[in-house]
Amino acid sequence: MTSMTFGQKKFIPTAPEKGSFPLDHEGQCKKLMLYYMRCLRSNNDDNSACRQESKAYLQCRMENNLMAKEEFSKLGFADLEDDAKKNEKSDK
Asked: For residue 78, which phi and psi values (nearest 5 degrees)?
C-alpha cells in the first residue's frame, strides 16, 4: 500500500563526517571491543563509565589502519590525556 505525500522533502543521504570505518575482518581489535561491550553491559549501557575501554579500542583501530589516525582530544578524550600526563609527571 502506498500513500501520496505532497510537500514532503526528498531524503538525500550524506556521508558521515569522519568517513566509514572498515570492518575488522581479521579480528585484530576484537578483544578490546569485547572488553568495551562487557563494560557497557555491566554499567547499564552508560558509556561514560567505559571511556578507558573505548579509548583503548579506538587506539587499536588506529594502530591497525582500521580508521584514520586522529588526536584523542578531537575524539572527546582530552580529559583522559590530561590525566595521563599528570600521572607521568607524578611518577617522576
From this structure: -60, -40
